[in-house]
Design goal:
With about 210 residues, this protein is of the alpha/beta class. It is built from 8 helices and 7 strands, in the order ββαβααββαβαβααα. The strands form 2 sheets. It has a 5-stranded parallel β-sheet, sandwiched between helices.
């Protein structure tokens, strides 16, 4: 049994195999999902998100923190402490402002090395995600929430967002955009065409 989603406090999930990445849902073909289910999910998404939407301001990278005691962190995360995740994120995005959002129940204290980065304890995750260039996290429900607003999102722990990559390469559009955006930034190019030219110049072109 696990708390549900959107919002967590209102729902509970029962799964005979486990939770998140190791749940029965991850192995489900979802062939039973029809247009009525999809339309209903869209309606519920609109109710949950309300008027919030991605503004495109791209003011910062939002990194939601989780409880270290969470089963998702103990069993499905490359990091066993949130401080380790903070250190990793700052190293990965040295030139970006990062806003770390603490879990509402987390009483721990954390530090950042970059003075431009902040750790916030209060604030609605959806409100914070609106102005984010990217939401970067482990396997928090907040990542799923961000995708409802089409905010580019990357999950680095085992979870619903990236488990599908291992299963059948079916990942959400916002996640694809997020990874592509990071590739373009690393290559210092503006679009995929320029990226392809750089790759070809480095001998990384596709082989037929």
């Amino acid at each position: 049994m696990e708390v549900g989603y959107f919002p967590q406090k209102n729902y509970v999930i029962f799964d005979r195999k486990g939770i998140n990445a190791r749940s029965e849902l991850m192995e489900d073909s979802l062939e039973w999902v029809d247009k009525n289910h999809i339309n209903r999910s869209k309606e519920l998404s609109k109710v949950y998100v309300g008027s919030k939407k991605h503004t495109g301001k791209n003011l910062y990278i939002l990194a939601p923190l989780q409880l270290a005691s969470d089963t998702n962190i103990k069993n499905h995360s490359p990091f066993k402490s949130m401080q380790a995740f903070i250190d990793h994120t700052e190293m990965k995005f040295p030139d970006d402002k990062v806003v770390f959002k603490k879990h509402p129940l987390d009483k721990s204290s954390y530090t950042t090395k970059n003075p431009n980065n902040t750790i916030v304890a209060n604030g609605d995750i959806l409100m914070l995600a609106q102005d984010a260039r990217l939401v970067y996290g482990i396997n928090s429900t907040s990542l799923l929430e961000a995708t409802l607003m089409n905010v580019p999102t990357i999950a680095i722990g085992e979870g619903f967002l990236n488990k599908q990559i291992a299963h059948n390469l079916k990942i959400c559009e916002t996640t694809v955009k997020a990874h592509m955006g990071e590739i373009l930034r690393k290559l210092k190019v503006a679009n995929r065409t320029q990226a392809a030219l750089v790759a070809r110049s480095l001998g990384l072109g596709l082989r037929h």
